[in-house]
Specification:
11-stranded antiparallel β-sheet, alpha+beta, single chain, 7-stranded antiparallel β-sheet, 15% strand, 28 helices, globular, EC 3.4.14.-
């Protein structure tokens, strides 16, 4: 009788948790969700979303750069993504005399569009479940190393075959549910992507760090690019002879507007979630990882701010760096608050108690799953101090730009000192470093990094137990512990701070000149930290991480068996996913209720706060506002700017199209509410909201503010 009661409780708990708005679903398998989606208002079919037999909405979606999404909005390869996704490209074309970040940029013709070396977009051609093929040689008696080798051999052959299917094809095989399932993803990659348009950052970044991750929001977070191809419409390196790409599908744009309760769908490349981690890791995130990371980034941001506020050149150089550092910093703060508010550790422990009871209900289950939770506890206890050093290594040591720069020279140094080294590899590594060095020094400021160095070394010395510190820190502490004095001394001596010296040495590097790098104080500091990490932390850290992945493979398998009626979605892993929900506001705190949309009225109101630098708006925009000159993009006498909905999103969804029930583009996803940032670990329908730029605001900026009607004319707009 007790077992029946247990199973009834489990059914009740997990039927409730499988809420409609939660989940990042695999496009190929979306048919299982279509009945629910249609009950919520969706008007299309699974084939409309994903098909390999004819063009579908997935053919209008691209993975933009390394960590964003973009979507095609014309038959001439025009795409839209977020301003923050295009930020580094916009910055790369900016100078003090021609500051595209500050002034914006709008190409009046194809000839005016700006190339971006290194920027690529990837279209998903197809995906397939290859679990049976990948696991065909795996046996229950294999070690994990043998298992990985068997999987890798099959995966390599499948990838090789897939990449021969078309021009510019790349393939990857990704594990799902910690290796319980495998999918192959075949992409076509385009490498000629040109900047077409971007509003000034007083629009594209309006609200800045003040509003980052929060609602209400008034940011015109979009930029525009164009994909170019060769004359056969195939991927090709940049060439003046390339022509705009002709897509299989592009999105129609709806300016009909949205209302509360409307169905919405987000189609993009979410980066990473961890929905199935145990209470042990959630506890580590809340009480160790996030607090330490936040504290270290507090220091770096304070230093950046002090320099950027006094020097326009530094402000441009460090604009992108500041945004990257601040983005995760604020996210971690919100995530920690959200997990605490949800009592996430307790909820995970409740699930684990149910799992333990279920596993002990039958001998077969106990043998396969009964050992998991005690093993989780043991491994996470051992992982905690190792994780501390791994975090400080990344945030404090590599938070110093010059140390990160010096670390890139280790491979070349080893090749130069190895008499048996392949000369072609050595030359290739040398040329790669010369190119990287030129890019590095373009946005490097010695005075800023010197301050960061002093602060990070002091923080590491004061906050990490001495037994976990390398000799370099201990020696400095034994002497006088004057970190600023040390920084001044080192930065005046190092070759790595001198662009001419570095590139000159690289150009003529040999077994004699390489010693200048080997004996450099910054390289010595890098090696001291790195040697300590490699000798004392790395191997065991990765052993535990690998062991945890194995445990999670069994744990998730067990959860699926325990809850056979629940629909499980796989954690995000930068592959194409569908999330769906409804437009709606929420109540984040007692007495506070948020509306589901914002308008240009809020831009004007914020701009009146003269003491907030992030709330500076262009005078031209204010003029349009005062005249109420909004063109066809107004609703009720104003222009909608942004709206929120209950779609499950994460990093990588930046720039994703937000579609209506008919599959038309109504907005561009660009953020989550601060109260939502814990959704990477635990989703809460009462708080989790994605923030979307209303496409009407983007059109208003392009057409009225920028006068770039040539771009609007390319689009197919449904009024």
């Amino acid at each position: 009788m007790k077992k029946k009661v247990l199973l009834l409780v489990l059914s009740a708990v997990f039927t409730f948790s499988a809420i409609a708005d939660e989940g990042m679903w695999i496009p190929m398998l979306i048919g299982k969700n279509i009945p629910e989606m249609q009950r919520m208002g969706f008007k299309l079919t699974a084939e409309d979303l994903y098909s390999v037999n004819h063009s579908s909405l997935k053919d209008a979606i691209v993975q933009f750069g390394r960590g964003c999404t973009g979507e095609l909005i014309s038959d001439q390869g025009l795409l839209i993504t977020n301003h923050h996704c295009g930020f580094s490209s916009i910055q790369s074309h900016s100078t003090v005399d021609n500051n595209l970040l500050a002034n914006g940029f709008w190409a009046k013709s194809h000839a005016d569009e700006l190339p971006n070396p290194g920027l690529t977009v990837r279209f998903l051609v197809r995906m397939d479940d290859v679990t049976d093929k990948v696991l065909k040689n795996v046996t229950t008696t294999m070690t994990e190393l043998e298992r990985a080798k068997a999987i890798g051999q099959v995966a390599d052959s499948l990838i090789e075959l897939a990449e021969k299917e078309g021009v510019g094809y790349e393939a990857i095989i990704r594990p799902f549910y910690y290796g319980n399932q495998y999918f192959i993803f075949v992409y076509q990659v385009f490498e000629d992507v040109r900047l077409v348009g971007a509003p000034p950052e007083t629009i594209g970044k309006f609200g800045g760090d003040t509003d980052n991750w929060v609602w209400p929001r008034h940011t015109g977070d979009f930029s525009m690019f164009r994909i170019y191809a060769d004359k056969n419409n195939n991927p090709a390196p940049y060439s003046p002879d390339n022509v705009p790409y002709k897509p299989k599908r592009f999105l129609k744009i709806s300016t009909k507007g949205i209302k509360e309760g409307d169905f919405t769908l987000v189609y993009g490349f979410p980066g990473r979630t961890k929905q199935y981690i145990t209470s042990h890791e959630v506890n580590l995130i809340i009480n160790q990882i996030n607090p330490n990371n936040i504290a270290l980034r507090d220091i770096r941001l304070s230093i950046f701010d002090s320099f950027m506020s006094k020097n326009d050149t530094i402000a441009i150089k460090y604009a992108s760096k500041h945004a990257r550092v601040a983005n995760a910093w604020k996210k971690w703060i919100g995530e920690t608050m959200g997990l605490k508010r949800l009592n996430a550790v307790s909820k995970k422990q409740e699930l684990e108690s149910m799992f333990a009871a279920w596993a002990s209900s039958k001998p077969e289950l106990n043998e396969r799953y009964g050992w998991l939770l005690p093993k989780f506890e043991q491994l996470y206890s051992e992982l905690a101090p190792l994780s501390l050093i791994a975090n400080y290594r990344y945030e404090a040591v590599y938070g110093v730009e010059l140390i990160g720069f010096a670390s890139r020279f280790e491979k070349l140094i080893n090749l130069v000192l190895d008499p048996k080294a392949d000369k072609d590899k050595l030359e290739a590594q040398k040329q790669a470093l010369i190119g990287y060095s030129r890019r590095f020094f373009k946005d490097f400021e010695l005075a800023v990094d010197r301050e960061v160095f002093a602060a990070m070394m002091q923080a590491y010395s004061e906050r990490v137990p001495e037994q976990l510190q390398p000799q370099f820190l201990l020696k400095v502490k034994e002497q006088n512990g004057n970190w600023r004095q040390l920084a001044s001394q080192i930065y005046s001596q190092t070759a790595f701070a001198d662009s001419v010296r570095v590139i000159t040495l690289l150009s003529g590097i040999d077994s004699i000149t390489v010693k200048e790098f080997v004996n450099d104080p910054v390289f010595g500091i890098y090696l001291d930290f790195e040697d300590f990490y490699r000798q004392n932390i790395r191997d065991r850290y990765y052993e535990i991480s690998d062991s945890l992945n194995v445990l999670y493979r069994y744990y998730v398998e067990g959860l699926m068996r325990m809850q056979p009626d629940k629909r499980f979605f796989p954690d995000a892993n930068s592959t194409l996913r569908i999330a769906y929900g409804k437009v709606g506001g929420f109540a984040p705190r007692d007495g506070v209720v948020y509306n589901y949309y914002t308008t240009i009225d809020g831009v004007y109101e914020k701009a009146q706060q003269r003491n907030v630098p992030d709330y500076v708006a262009p005078e031209r925009l204010i003029e349009f506002y005062k005249k109420k000159d909004f063109g066809p993009y107004a609703e009720n006498g104003t222009v909608p700017v942004a709206f929120i909905a209950s779609n499950h999103t994460t990093g990588g969804n930046s720039g994703s199209p937000v579609l209506d029930a008919e599959g038309n583009l109504i907005g561009v996803n660009f953020d989550r509410c601060w109260e939502s940032t814990m959704s990477d670990v635990m989703f809460d329908p009462n708080y989790c909201r994605n923030i979307t730029l209303d496409i009407r605001y983007a059109l208003f900026i392009i057409d009225k503010f920028a006068g770039a009607k040539n771009l609007v004319d390319e689009m197919e707009i449904i009024n």
